[in-house]
Structures are given as structure tokens and as C-alpha cells.
């Protein structure tokens, strides 16, 4: 395949030749083009290092097929699935069962190994796990929170194995239970969702980030802090030499949006104040934050229509991550190069994926082509997750026209002048475990 006249994030216009699964050449190549990009933006396929595709156990929420279609339609070519499924991915048999299901994925993937009181590290580390984590320092979906002693043992073992530890950092001893007890009895979009933000306090995140980094330093482990929602947590991770991620919902939403979202805006960690959101966004722009990942955690509309104490935590996001960031770039809020780095180049570096994350000769041909001038309105009904809704309803997004995984077309659409897809098509499952 030859993609001609593509604009890269750094502004260069190039041709890209693909041979088999790899990029064979980048430059002024000539020859008959299979795809004339006509100056549109070509980015390396995004790596979403934090998704919950819900299989096994909860296929009514999402499956590897539907979740990977949603990823491909958002320009994501690699996803990393977390362990809080049913059964949790804490032993060899559970890993093998999930790996079999993952064969339905259209995009490449990693499978994280989890930690509970019943985990079997010898079995897990004999499998091609992506990383250890999400290791939960407080209960979230799946109730996999662990105590301090087990966390220390897990980090020590990961350090010996040379595996990154991804940490869900919240200290449950600092949760404000009185704030949750004072919440009203509304449900769904009428619920007092702000009580959840007050309950799972910012202080709880910051303390847990600091503790996770201390334990990591004691074992010389590589620690990655998942879904940091506070500037203080980001700064603590950076000061300790750990890496961290920010999710689009913490970047684009705040407690001020909860009057409209209700329990559809309940997640862990929760939304923060507008002041903190702005400070997080500044750290995303200035390079303090390493990556953006989604914590894609779909639940059905019916499940979310509950009270603030009963509704499940989490929001879908894998399909809207890059579109939201590109729309922000078009508004001048960050650069296209920063979007590339946050979603592709830096995740490949943090998690040691040497053939991914760049448009360069010899790299996997994981690519997504965008028309930056086609800014669309995000609608949940147009997305491909089983959730069927999005917390970003009405936001602007720039969606891909073409997505390739190792040279195979996994998503393609032809759009009309209004930005709506006249037609779209998905390829066959092409995904592989990036750890072999």
C-alpha cells in the first residue's frame, strides 16, 4: 500500500509505503497511490493503555469484538485490558480464557495480570502479560482492592520480573463517608453525583500516589499511576520518577458537569473541581503528564439509571479519546505533536513497545488518517460501544476516515460534506497480543 500526500503531526507532507505489516519507507516516494491523503493528517495508531472490555463475565456491557470496533473507529490500534473481569485475571487459567476471547479483537492488545488475595504470580508471569495491574489500592468495579502488605509483595515481584506496575491510587481510609451519607435519593441524571466527588476525595488520591511511588522506589520497580485526576497527584508521580496517565473525562469534564450527567458521570477516581481540571489540563499540555488513556469502562444505560450509591462507576471512552484531543488541537489548546505523543509515542515508550507509536520506517503499520477540517458533534448513538451513550454528548471531535493495524484496514468510512458517515466498514479481526 502507498499512502500519498499525508501530513504528519510535525507538519511534514510525506508518502508512506507499507509492505506487509511494516512501514517500508517514508518520504517523497512517487508511484501510484492506493490512498491519496490530499494533505490530511496521518497519525500513528493510538495506544489506549487502560480499557475494560468486560469479557469474560459481562458481555452485555462490552465484548472484545464491540470494544475493538469502537477502538478502531476512534483511531486506536492497540488496547490494554484490565483484570477486573469475571473471573479476574489473576491466575493462568483466567489469563488463558481471556486470551482466547481476545482473538475476536480487530486491534492489537495487551492483557494485564491482576492482584488479589488469591492471585497466582508464578502462573501469571509464565504468560505473556502486558503489565501487572491495574492494581487497586481501593475497591472499584470488581472489588479487587488489596492491603498494603500484598501491594508491597506484588510490586517486589513485578520488579524482579521487569514488569511495569499500573496502580489505581486511592486511599480508602481518607474517603469522606459523611459526604456520601448526605447525598439525596435521586437516580440517573437527577442523582446527587457531586457527593461521589466529595466522598472519594482528592486527598485520598494524592496520599495513595505518594505511597505507591514510595513502595516502587523501595523495590526499584517501574510504577505507572492510572487515571490521575488531580494536579497534586500528577506532581507527586513526576517528582518520584513514576509515569502517569490522565483520562479524557478528567481532562474535559469537572464537577460542574455533574448536574447534567448525574450518575452517568460517576467514576473512580471521580470528577474534580474546575480549578483542578484546568490545572490537570495545563500539565497535559506542558509535558508533565506522560500519556492520555481512557479507562474505557462501559455500563448499560439501564445500569447507570440508579442512585449515587448503587450506580456502577465508569464511562465509555476508547472511541472518543483521539477525536476529542484533535478537536482541542484545532481550537489551539494543544499541538498535534502533543496529541501524537500523548496517545502513541509516549505509551509505546512507557510500556516498551518498540515497533509502535511512530510513523517511521521499520515500525508496525499502525496508522490513522484524519481530516482536521471535519469537526463533528459527538453523539452516543453514533458510537460503536455496547454502552450506547457517552459523557461527551455534544462535544466536538475529529474522527478517523481510515484505520490500519499492521497494514490491515480495520476501519474505513466515506463521509459526506456534513461530516456524517455515508458508509463505514470494519475489517476482520486482525489483533495480536503485543507481548507475543
Automatic annotation (TrEMBL):
Pathway in which this enzyme or protein is active: Pyrimidine metabolism; UMP biosynthesis via de novo pathway; (S)-dihydroorotate from bicarbonate: step 3/3
Amidohydrolase-related domain: residues covered: 42-372
Biological process per Gene Ontology, one example term: purine nucleobase catabolic process
InterPro entries: Amidohydro-rel, DHOase, DHOase/Allantoinase_Hydrolase, Dihydroorotase_CS, Metal-dep_hydrolase_composite, Metal_Hydrolase
Keyword Nucleotide-binding part of the UniProt annotation: no
Record-level Gene Ontology MF annotations: allantoinase activity; dihydroorotase activity; zinc ion binding
Cofactor note: Binds 2 Zn(2+) ions per subunit.
Annotated stretches, region: Disordered: 416-436
Recorded catalytic activity of this chain's protein: (S)-dihydroorotate + H2O = N-carbamoyl-L-aspartate + H(+)
Binding of Zn(2+) 2, residues: 134, 168, 227
EC number(s) per entry: 3.5.2.3
Gene Ontology CC entries for this record: cytoplasm
Active-site positions on this chain: 295
List of residues binding substrate: 52-54, 84, 299
Chain sites annotated for binding Zn(2+) 1: 50, 52, 134, 295
Pfam families the record matches: Amidohydro_1
Enzyme class: hydrolase
PROSITE patterns for the chain: DIHYDROOROTASE_1, DIHYDROOROTASE_2
Cofactor(s) it depends on: Zn(2+)
Keywords of the record: Hydrolase, Metal-binding, Pyrimidine biosynthesis, Zinc
Assigned protein family: Belongs to the metallo-dependent hydrolases superfamily. DHOase family. Class I DHOase subfamily.
Role, per record: Catalyzes the reversible cyclization of carbamoyl aspartate to dihydroorotate.
Record protein name field: Dihydroorotase
Encoding gene per record: pyrC
Amino acid at each position: 500500500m502507498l499512502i500519498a500526500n499525508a501530513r504528519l503531526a510535525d507538519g511534514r507532507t510525506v508518502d508512506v509505503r507499507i509492505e506487509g505489516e511494516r512501514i517500508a519507507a517514508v518520504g517523497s516516494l512517487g508511484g501510484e497511490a492506493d490512498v491519496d491523503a490530499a494533505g490530511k493528517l496521518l497519525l500513528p495508531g493510538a495506544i489506549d493503555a487502560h480499557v475494560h472490555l468486560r469479557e469474560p463475565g459481562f458481555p452485555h456491557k462490552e465484548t472484545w469484538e464491540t470494544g475493538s470496533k469502537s477502538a478502531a473507529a476512534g483511531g486506536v490500534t492497540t488496547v490494554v485490558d484490565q483484570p477486573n473481569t469475571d473471573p479476574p485475571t489473576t491466575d493462568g487459567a483466567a489469563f488463558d480464557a481471556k486470551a482466547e476471547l481476545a482473538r475476536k479483537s480487530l486491534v492489537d492488545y495487551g492483557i494485564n495480570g491482576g492482584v488479589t488475595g488469591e492471585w497466582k504470580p508464578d502462573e501469571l508471569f509464565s504468560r505473556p502479560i502486558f503489565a501487572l495491574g491495574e492494581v487497586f489500592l481501593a475497591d472499584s468495579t470488581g472489588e479487587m482492592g488489596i492491603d498494603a502488605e500484598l501491594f508491597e509483595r506484588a510490586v517486589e515481584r513485578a520488579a524482579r520480573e521487569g514488569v511495569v506496575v499500573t496502580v489505581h491510587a486511592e486511599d480508602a481510609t481518607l474517603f469522606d463517608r459523611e459526604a456520601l451519607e448526605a447525598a439525596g435519593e435521586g437516580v440517573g441524571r437527577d442523582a446527587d453525583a457531586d457527593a461521589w466527588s466529595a466522598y472519594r476525595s482528592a486527598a485520598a488520591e494524592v496520599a495513595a500516589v505518594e505511597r505507591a511511588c514510595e513502595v516502587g522506589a523501595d523495590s526499584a520497580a517501574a510504577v505507572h499511576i492510572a487515571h490521575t485526576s488531580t494536579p497534586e497527584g500528577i506532581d507527586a508521580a513526576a517528582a518520584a520518577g513514576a509515569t502517569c496517565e490522565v483520562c479524557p473525562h478528567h481532562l474535559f469534564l469537572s464537577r460542574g458537569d455533574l448536574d447534567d450527567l448525574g450518575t452517568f458521570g460517576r467514576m473512580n477516581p471521580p470528577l474534580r473541581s474546575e480549578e483542578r481540571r484546568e490545572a490537570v489540563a495545563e500539565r497535559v499540555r506542558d509535558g508533565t503528564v506522560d500519556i492520555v488513556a481512557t479507562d474505557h469502562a462501559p455500563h448499560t444505560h439501564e445500569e447507570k439509571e440508579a442512585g449515587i450509591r448503587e450506580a456502577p462507576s465508569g464511562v465509555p471512552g476508547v472511541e472518543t479519546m483521539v477525536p476529542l484531543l484533535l478537536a482541542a488541537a484545532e481550537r489551539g489548546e494543544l499541538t498535534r505533536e502533543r496529541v501524537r505523543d500523548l496517545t502513541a509515542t509516549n505509551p509505546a515508550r512507557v510500556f516498551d513497545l518498540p515497533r509502535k507509536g511512530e510513523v517511521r520506517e521499520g515500525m508496525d503499520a499502525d496508522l490513522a488518517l484524519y481530516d482536521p477540517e471535519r469537526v463533528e458533534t459527538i453523539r452516543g448513538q453514533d458510537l460503536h460501544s455496547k454502552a450506547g451513550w457517552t459523557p461527551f454528548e455534544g462535544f466536538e471531535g475529529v474522527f478517523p476516515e481510515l484505520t490500519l493495524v499492521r497494514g490491515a484496514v480495520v476501519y474505513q468510512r466515506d463521509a459526506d460534506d456534513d461530516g456524517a458517515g455515508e458508509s463505514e466498514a470494519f475489517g476482520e479481526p486482525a489483533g495480536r497480543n503485543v507481548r507475543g
